[in-house]
Amino acid sequence: MTAGEAVTDDVCPAPRVVIADDQALVRTGFRMILTARGIDVVGEAADGVEAVAAVLALRPDVVLMDIRMPNMDGLEATRRVVAQVPRCRVLMLTTFDLDRYVYAALAAGASGFLLKDVTPEHLAAAVRLVDTGDALLAPSITRRLVERFASDAHGPATHPKALHRDLGALTPRELEVLTLMGRGLSNADLATELTLSEATVKTHVARIFAKLSLRDRAQAVVLAYETGLVAPGDPPPGSA
């Protein structure tokens, strides 16, 4: 599922959101968009320090977190939010679709990212998707980011390594599912590739997350690269 797919305001309770961005106009615009669509904006922050403080005080479900902010950037703020309030989901905001910090943010525990020129409909849908823990907004985009920066010398040299996680705990089928998730396949794509029902795929995905202590699909994609299940340049599934 992606942020572009239909997710209506009636599907689940409105998430509580904190908006962290150093530009007041961005915060105001996002607040208006989300409020108009029934999403509860409970706080704002102008930098990473304020963002962490707001999360600790307000315990929101989702934080819209700008990557580049003064005093403390969104990357460090994300690390602290995820460590201190694990149930809170972080949705990164970036101006560029290949921002080199996005990979580090995903590795730090962010659940996905959005471009700041996102449409109002996609913004609201993305917040709801991340709130449900249903995945990164677009696995294929995540794969592109990870592939570009996973082995970049200028990328994050120290990420909370997932190598300690015991992939041996996975069944052969679960390992196959994780590998394909790392290549950017959605649940629907996985069902087609493996000739399974989507319900069965969701069960496999849930078990993978539980066994490897993964928060969401974003971490699964990063893990697949960090453990060598997927390598930059691997051909897409089904190719010759």
Please characterize this protein's 3D structure.
- This protein is an alpha/beta fold and 240 residues long.
- 47% of the residues lie in helices and 11% in strands.
- The protein contains ten helices and five strands.
- Strands 2-1-3-4-5 form a five-stranded parallel β-sheet, sandwiched between helices.
- α3 runs parallel beside α4 and α6 packs parallel to α10.
- The two termini are 26 Å apart.
- The N terminus is likely disordered.
**Going across the major beta sheet, what is the strand order?**
2-1-3-4-5
Report, as a whole number of angstroms, the end-to-end distance. Answer: 26 Å
Give the strand tally. 5
Poorly predicted residue ranges: 1-11, 153-164
Counting helices, strands and paired strands, the structural category is alpha/beta
Helical residues, percent: 40-55%
Strand content: 5-15%
Radius of gyration: 17 Å
Shape: globular
- Counted by DSSP, the helix tally is 10
The succession of helices and strands, N to C, reads: EHEHEHEHEHHHHHH
Largest sheet: 5 strands, parallel
* Rounded mean pLDDT score: 81
